[in-house]
Design a protein that fits this description.
The protein is α+β, with helices and mostly antiparallel strands. Helix content is 33%, strand content 29%. Strands 3, 4, 5 and 6 form a 4-stranded antiparallel sheet that branches. Helix 2 crosses helix 4 and helix 2 crosses helix 5.
Length: 187
């Protein structure tokens, strides 16, 4: 007899529940280490490769190797061969908020018909270029707008928007200080 998979919003509900159950029973399985390697190509163009990670208690390989290119637009002396690093941050933030929203909606049995996030972020290049110590190097603010189509009541969708912000790892990293260390290896 074949087992029927139940999905909601493209999420396998039984597998989600099983994962949550397993993590509650063995918190060590919840520890994940993401890894990336970045290489300079030329000018402002660089390439980040993501191919492996640690999860569920062991080193693992992604099904494929991912390459993400970053560059700057012509106005910032680049050749526009990829989004800038600051734009990539918006990609990471929006992707994480989107996934967090959808997973929590599925876990609560809330059907989502459409979901789009629009982000805008303001940056003053005087900080990055060292022209002013009074100007922040990074974004001064980021605005996120959730556009949601769902048969669920507005209050439920508002709760999911709040939950997406509360549970998104990237939202947490952007809104709270995350320790970052750097070291040098010559060679």
């Amino acid at each position: 007899m074949a087992t029927q998979t139940t999905t909601l919003n493209g999420v396998d509900i039984e597998r989600l529940r099983e994962t949550i159950h397993n993590l509650k029973g063995n918190p060590e399985l919840a520890k994940v280490q993401h890894r990336a390697t970045n290489e300079w190509v030329d000018g402002a163009h660089c390439r980040t490769t993501v191919s492996d990670y640690y999860g569920a208690g062991e080193d693992r390989e992604h099904a494929q190797r991912f390459e993400l290119h970053a560059d700057e637009p012509d106005v910032l002396l680049g050749e526009d061969r990829g989004p800038s690093a600051t734009e990539a941050l918006l990609y990471a933030l929006s992707s994480c908020l989107n996934t967090t929203f959808v997973y929590h909606a599925a876990a609560r049995g809330v059907q989502i018909d459409e979901l789009r996030l629009d982000l805008t972020a303001d940056l003053d290049l005087r900080g990055f270029l060292g022209l002013s110590d009074e100007v922040r190097n990074g974004y001064s603010n980021i605005q996120v707008t959730f556009h949601v189509k769902s048969p669920a009541p507005r209050e439920t969708i508002e709760e999911l928007v709040e939950l997406a912000q509360k549970r998104s790892p990237v939202f947490d990293m952007v809104t709270h200080e995350t320790p970052v260390s750097a070291k040098l290896e010559l060679g």
